[in-house]
């Protein structure tokens, strides 16, 4: 049980350590830190809502869904489809390569593919719900369950490093690689449009600046 100032520990299995190494090798430091914080916030959200690992959700799959969710924004992604799909594909490939079965990889794939889909992810089971909740919490969305001490501890260990602008940069860069990577009305399309029309900051960056954690 976490106290008002403690935060969850990262899993220490060989696969979990490799996942962190993989993410850090593909993504910039701000985005990698965001992926880790998303997991920590997802775990805190689960605890707050009384959801039990092993009963209500698979803690290992939640870790991988969060830690791998932004692989599609990295230069390692193919750059042919929207980043959520490519990130889900890369995560599934990683898990399959480490012996995970179809059920596990499909669940993580869905959680990652839907993490930018409000109103859909929340209705696709606890894993997708917690993944989206953890990612959103790192943007300051619905973070009432995080104490000030927990927020400080998370950010002290994994600094933000201007994450929102760094992530928008990566998404826009990925979107420019192929028309299908920025299909109309997707987050990548809208961010690219705003960058062209508004420059920096985009609406997302402005909202983050005004949020509890800042950019």
Question: What attributes characterize this protein structure?
Answer:
215 residues; mainly alpha; Hypothetical protein af1432; 57% helix; 0% strand; globular
Short description:
The chain is an all-alpha fold. 57% of the residues lie in helices and 0% in strands. α2 (29-48) packs across α6 (126-137), α3 packs across α6 (126-137) and α8 packs across α9.
Set down the secondary structure blueprint.
Elements lengths: L13 H13 L2 H20 L10 H9 L15 H15 L4 H12 L12 H12 L10 H10 L5 H13 L11 H12 L4 H7 L6
Describe this structure in words.
This protein is mostly helical and 215 residues long. It has a domain at 14-160: Hypothetical protein af1432 (Orthogonal Bundle), CATH 1.10.3210.10. 57% of the residues lie in helices and 0% in strands. The chain is built from ten helices and no strands. The chain has helices at 14-26, 29-48, 59-67, 83-97, 102-113, 126-137, 148-157, 163-175, 187-198, 203-209. Helix 2 (29-48) packs antiparallel against helix 3 and helix 8 (163-175) crosses helix 9. The radius of gyration is 16 Å and the shape is globular. The mean pLDDT is 94.
Mean pLDDT: 94
Percentage beta strand: under 5%
Q: How would you characterize the largest beta sheet?
A: none
How far apart the termini lie comes to 29 Å
What's the CATH topology name of the domain at 14-160? Hypothetical protein af1432
CATH architecture of the domain at 14-160: Orthogonal Bundle
The CATH class of the domain at 14-160 is Mainly Alpha
In sequence order, what are the helices and strands, one letter per element?
HHHHHHHHHH
């Amino acid at each position: 049980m976490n106290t008002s100032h403690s935060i969850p520990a990262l899993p220490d299995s060989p696969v979990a350590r490799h996942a962190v190494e993989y993410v850090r090798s593909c993504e910039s430091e701000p985005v990698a830190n965001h992926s880790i914080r998303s997991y920590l916030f997802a775990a805190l959200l689960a605890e707050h809502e009384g959801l039990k690992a092993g009963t209500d959700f698979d803690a290992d799959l939640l870790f991988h869904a969060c830690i791998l969710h932004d692989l599609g924004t990295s230069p390692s992604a193919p750059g042919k489809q929207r980043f959520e799909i490519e990130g889900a594909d890369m995560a599934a490939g990683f898990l399959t390569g480490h012996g995970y079965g179809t059920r596990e990889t499909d669940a993580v794939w869905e959680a990652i593919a839907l993490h930018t889909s409000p109103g859909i992810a929340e209705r696709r089971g606890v894993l997708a719900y917690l993944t989206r909740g953890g990612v959103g919490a790192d943007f300051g969305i619905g973070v009432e369950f995080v104490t000030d001490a927990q927020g400080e501890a998370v950010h002290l260990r994994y600094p933000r490093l201007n994450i929102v602008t760094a992530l928008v940069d990566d998404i826009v860069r990925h979107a420019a690689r192929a028309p299908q990577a920025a299909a109309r009305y997707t987050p990548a399309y809208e961010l690219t449009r705003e960058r062209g029309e508004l420059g920096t900051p985009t609406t997302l960056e402005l909202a983050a600046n005004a949020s509890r954690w800042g950019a």
